[in-house]
Amino acid sequence: MHRFKIGSKTADAFIIRDDEFYHLVKVLRLRQGDQVAGFDNSGAQWQGIIESIDKDSAVCRIMKEEFPGVEAKTAVYLVMGLAKGEKMEWVIQKGTELGMAGFIPLRTQRAVLQLEGKKAGEKVARWQKIASEAVKQSRRVVEPEVTQIADWGDLERILPPETQWLIPYEDETNNSLSNTLDGFKAEYPIAILIGPEGGFTPAEVSGARERLKASSVSLGPRILRTETAALTSLIMVLTHFGDLG
Amino acid sequence: MHRFKIGSKTADAFIIRDDEFYHLVKVLRLRQGDQVAGFDNSGAQWQGIIESIDKDSAVCRIMKEEFPGVEAKTAVYLVMGLAKGEKMEWVIQKGTELGMAGFIPLRTQRAVLQLEGKKAGEKVARWQKIASEAVKQSRRVVEPEVTQIADWGDLERILPPETQWLIPYEDETNNSLSNTLDGFKAEYPIAILIGPEGGFTPAEVSGARERLKASSVSLGPRILRTETAALTSLIMVLTHFGDLG
Prior knowledge:
Number of domains of chain A: 2
Radius of gyration of chain A: 20 Å
Mean pLDDT of chain A: 95
CATH architecture of the largest domain in chain A: 3-Layer(aba) Sandwich
Oligomer: homodimer
Order of helices and strands of chain A: EEEHEEEEHEHEHEHEHEH
């Protein structure tokens, strides 16, 4: 069954509009009588039947409301240094499938990829679209937000003060991620800082430790690429709190 | 320091030949006096200095022999249904970084990608090269083998009889991967069966349960793409046995 982010709803019906509507009529060519599922990021999901299609919206009669237990209970955010090629897209797609709560692209000192102004906005819009598609692929009901590209100083404002910050760091030999998570609370958000290809500078790591109270952790003895580190740490955190597997 | 798979060694020196030699002289343009590291898949690693370069080999004097604790102690194999696009390459690359012991490409009923004969051999050679590069990137000292493309009936021959088989399966709701791993032994190999884009057929799953004694497991409530499932299950198994994080 095809899944759509709904535009609005009443007690009996939900309405599909805009890009989602375009996708329904032009790409999928669905018609009156077809079954569809709708969600609105509240955690609920509705099974419906297309009742009518006019020139810019589809009205779907609700057959069933559900609260699928598909979302992770722990809110885990990926905060990733701008990386080249398709890496951001890859992490956003798979991070969404896996259950991340949100994604914050971060400007860092060693980042090769530079994004400002209009180009930055366009890139973020594209990344949000990827998250949106991955939500449907994975049958999630809440779409993670991809924020505008942040600088280090923005991070304290973007996530709440009780956020527990992790910084997987190549040079960290003492603290395993598993042990550090034992000291974390599942009810508070967790944010994972991932460096770009060149890694974080020592100044960035100590800045994160100071201002964000970030715990630097080791992901094990093998060197991981930035995108592998992002997914690995996300998977390990979600698994630790029972949200995966 | 650049890392090379060595051709041969004596007590005092190791020799770099063939593709590795080409890479050393033509690509990296290293010279007499440069420091290099060598490994030979035995688990050892040697730090050396290039002593001489002739037309087809480089002799490197050994300064130090090490046994870096970089390899995973648990042998975990990924057995992946042939998938389209770059998915096999991604999984092989990142699986190697993460620490997998080997990779077996598998022909399955729903696989869209078909590979036979000469083309299959060429693809496997390419995949092995990707593993080889990822070994160097991650500073591993043992290169995982990518076997020739297997059919279901080959699997019992390729891995030893004590291998513990896992089959992450979308329709599995009862068994969590974590619980199943509690019943596994770290000393015996673990092999993870990953379906192609269309998944495994029910007949393939029951065949694996019967012939390989595979445990079908759930990776959680969200639907994962084939390549995400491959890495997720690998990460979860390695983490469970302390080989990651």
